Amino acid sequence: MLAYIVRRILYAIPILIGVNVITFALFFAVNTPNDVARMQLGVKRVTPQAIEEWKREHGYDKPLFYNAARSGLARLTDTIFFQKSVRLFAFDFGRSDSGRDIGADIRQRMWPSLAIAVPVFIVGLLTNITMALLIVFFRATYLEVSAVVLTVVMMSISSLFYIIAGQFLIGKLMHLVPISGYSGGLSAFKFLVLPVAVGVISGIGSGTRWYRTIFLEEFGKDYVRTARAKGLSELRVLFRHVLKNGMVPILTGAVVILPLLFTGNLILESFFGIPGLGSYTIDAIQGQDFAIVRSMVFLGSVFYIVGLLLTDISYTLVDPRIRLR
What we know:
By secondary structure, the chain is an all-alpha fold. It has two domains: about 1-90, no CATH class; about 115-320, MetI-like (MetI-like fold). It has helices at about 1-30, 35-40, 50-60, 75, 80-85, 100-135, 140-155, 160-175, 190-220, 220-230, 235-255, 265-270, 275-285, 290-320.
């Protein structure tokens, strides 16, 4: 197991380097360092001297990938890509192009993101599994057909519709909770109720349909027929056997999502004014702050790789037949 984990971590290094290269190339294919300087200086008629000064202060005065003016290894190391990317592997995110401490921003904004993402994940998971079990229990009936049609309709509707409808009905018409905003402490609850509810409801369609497929597949296996032959009721078959065995793919699918909870929900946070990592990323993209965009893409990649590793490990815990070598 330890050798497998070490091997996967070593595999992750070239993946992260590749992600950095692609992110870097895409950003500077659209914006040159001069464009970045003009946007950050925020004036239309900025002088060339001011641009060069800003680039020198923020480390954008070097070539992008290859420095032909230097010799030896410095041709690769004395570049914007190398000097901006290497410290990311030590989780030193440096400062944004606007001068803010990115690491401090991430530590501050991760808590509002988790305050939304964790309840949406837990409540959504329990709701979807419960709905899927009910549909499977009443399979081959009009109730199942109606439920399947409803889930298809729900998953076909954009999440923006749920956000706008929730803000209009719950926030504007009923005045039950604020439409947007955030505050710390216990008072944050009133700002989180609506986005959490919207996040859960918008995921019911796809989640329930996926879990229903898993449970229906389990119902067709031999151990279910054996359990029925022993005289077990449908409820006992459903909860003692089908649910237990169906939790293997559900657990592994949930584990891969867990690390990504830290990166926040871009759409929910932006529309509800939650100062989390999702809105932080959106603001950085709109402001063309490459330092923040690069840091968030790198962090998301690390979390995703960790999620895949945890998924492989969880397989061995829920299914002893699988062994990692």
